[in-house]
Every structure is written in C-alpha cells, then in structure tokens.
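From the pipeline queue, job 12 of 40. The input is one protein chain; the requested action is below.

Action: predict structure.
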Amino acid sequence: MGSHATWSVSLGRWGGLHVRLHSFFLLFAAFTLLLGWTASLQPEMEDALLIAAASLGVLFVSVLVHELAHLGVARRLGGGSDEIVLGPLGGMAPLRSPPDAQADCLVHLAGPIVNLAISLCAGLLIVIVVDQSLIPLLHPLAPGGLTEGDASWIRGAKLVFWINWGLFLVNMLPAFPFDGGRALRAALARVWPDASPRRPAAIVATVAKFAAFALLVASFILLLRPANDVTPVPAWFALLLLAIFLYFSAKQEEDRHDERESEEDVFGYDFSQGYTSLERSTEPRQESTGMVQQWLEQRRQNCETRRRQQEADEEGRVDEILTRLHEQGMKALSDEDRALLQRVSERYRERK
C-alpha cells in the first residue's frame, strides 16, 4: 500500500506516540453513515443514523485500545514503535517485533485478548444488570436485538460487546494481515527455528487466500438474501471488504518476504529475525554458492589469468632488453625498460 503517511490522516502526537487514521477507516465510516442515513428515512428506523455514528465511535476506541495493547507488550519485550495507524479492523502499521519468536507471538495476541476482555466486561453488565442472554449478540454479522433497549446505555453496552467480540474473532483469523496469522507465523518460526522466514509466511499467506475466496463467495450469497436484522453495516459488505483486504494483504506479505529473501541471498544476512540471524550467517554454509559469489570467483580467476599472462610477456621481453644492454650499453635502455627489468628482478627474488 506504500507509505502509511500517504494513505492516512494524522491525529497528532499523543504522549510522544504519533497516531494516524488510515483512509480505509474513513471510507468505512463514510459508507456506514450513508447506510445509516438511508435507513433512517424509514419510519421504523428513525435512529439508524445515530446507531451508525455510535458504532463508529465505539469502533475507534476499541481499535485504539487494541493497538495500544500491542504496543505496550511489544515495548516490554524488546520491540515497539513510534507510530500507530488505525484501520477499521485493527492497526495498519507493523510494529518492530521482538527478536524472540515466542515474544513476537505474545505481542500479536495482546490486542485480540484486550478486545475479548472488554467484550466480557460489557457482556457481564448486560447479563447481570439487564438480565438478557448474550447468545443473539454472538453472531458477528447479524446480531439479534442489537438496537433493542429502552435506555441508551443498554444499547451502548450491546454495541461495545458486539464490536469488541467481532474484532476478537476477525483478528484471531489464522491469516494475514490479522493478529492470528502473525501469531501463527511466529509459532511456526519457533517450531522450525532453522527454516527460512518465508516458509511460515507462505503457509499463512496460502491460508489467507483461501479464506478470502470463501468470504467473497459468502458475501455474494448474503447479498442475494433479504436482510431481516438491523445492523450498522450490512453483512455482505463487511464480508466483501474483509475478503478484499485479506487477499491483497496476504499478497503484500508474500512479496515482502520474497524481497527480504533475495536480499539475504545477496548479502548473506537476514536481520528480520534479530541479531541471532547474524550469528547463524557466520556458520559454514552447506548450500551452493550464489550468483554473486560465483561472479566474484570468476572475476578473481580472470584477474589471475591476466596477471600471469602479463608476467610471461614481461619475462619474454627481458632477453631482448639484455641483448641491447650487452651490445649498446645502459644508454640504449629507456625508463620503461629499466622499470621492467627491476620488476622482473624483484619477482625472481620473491620466487626464490
């Protein structure tokens, strides 16, 4: 997607942390408000626009807390970042991961765990105070009874529960670019510590592409069915957005690892896994030499061949110079002849 600064809007620095809002979030918000305004034109759904606006506010805070959880755990374990970019489903800017695979896995799981905790707190409030079942709200696309309730705080609690529950489910998908996919990649890297970084990334990216295709099919099926429940965002649109986002993010992750592996082949180091990769790179390599090594070796051999040919030519001229020296004396020798005799004489002494 290029630079995050190009595709996002700055919200300023919050305590030294640069917070940005990605254009995906802005587009998602605009479409949600448009749907809410259209629905509010119907007499039985007059408050649809208000519900859409409230859901966007809850989503913004939930994603912000999600990213701050990632950042806090990363900084404690040796990673971190000076910037976060908020998208509709989570952060869009990668963190500087800890060098250890297990710590990296914990960093990626921190955000969804916080969303789950918020969802559980809101759920307990609904069950204990309102005395209402949470089962209808567990549907991530079409929750039942989301807009029901006499008091506004009851609707707000339901929105908090449903949105954080949805963020938890989506981000735990074992596919890029969600936290579940990155946590799975870190877990595979721990299982195969000597494998190329591209191997676990390729596995997770393949899972993501299959998931994107399945979501695309499901979105078209839902589009053809009439919607019975009132939701801030239609289920088919959420699935379509998720499918597109999933596919292109997985492709981007594959390309990034391809470029990184190419650099590793050229320079012999892979700093993406921390400084331990530098230690591994100093060990004897059993693989065949790469193109750069072959080119350097061929260049060295060509230089050695030219040097030997030049020495042979100079030694062949020595006899002719010595003949002139014997017949005509030192005056017959040029500065070049004297320098050649000196080089050949030194070469003979080195060989002895």
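Job complete. Confidence is low (pLDDT under 50) at residues 265-289.
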